[in-house]
Amino acid sequence: MIIIVNYNMGNVGSILNMLKKVGAEGIISSDPEVILRAEKLILPGVGAFDQGVANLENLGLIPILNEKVLVQATPIIGICLGMQLMTESSEEGKNSGLGWVKGRTVRFDRQRTKQLKIPHMGWDVIIPRKESDLMDGLSHDARFYFVHSYHVLCENTADVLTTTTYGYEFASSFQHGNIFGVQFHPEKSHKYGMKLLKNFVEYL
Question: Is 185 a catalytic residue?
Fold first, then answer.
């Protein structure tokens, strides 16, 4: 059973529809008892970092998620803000992140993206930096849909799964054991997003 964590900050309906397209059963829930029974978790996210942390806290979900992710090693994927919340902090706010992955979330450097619009919005390629079942079968020209003004800086480069260049190279996804994060939106990325989510569904 795949649980899409509903903390009022993400495209939960779009993600559920994409799971259905790849033949997986998903449930949208903010109920701690339901989340505790999850075989896999998806942490979506659109919006501000501090609000995301506050919503998780107010729903009492942080201890539950820590138990599932850190103790039970349940596979989880964070999408966009969901990925950023997995880091230790963000330049966007003052609240501490979940801290599952060593690193922080930073604003795009305007000195290095002078000729580019922020947010980084639209289709872009990802460049694999290590092998992972999450990227299995994706072609070298796979493109995903991005909408973001902040990106993750991983403290440990071994956690970086893919990079993307927008003025400069940044981590567009990471993997730390059972913890995955993608800066792009697989639920909006058509066949490539379907393949990535199918890989996550089948991940052991």
Answer: yes
Active site residue 154: no
Determine the structural domain holding residue 149 and report its residue range: 2-202
User: pLDDT > 90: what percent of the chain?
Assistant: 96
124 pLDDT band, cuts 50/70/90, is very high
CATH of residue 76: 3.40.50.880
Pick the catalytic residue from 92, 148, 151, 187.
Answer: 187
Q: Is 190 a catalytic residue?
A: no
Catalytic residue among 25, 33, 80, 91: 80
Closest CA to 10 of 31, 40, 33, 30: 30
Catalytic residue among 148, 185, 190, 202: 185
Query: How does pLDDT run across 177-192, given as a tens digit for each residue?
Result: 999 999 999 999 999 9
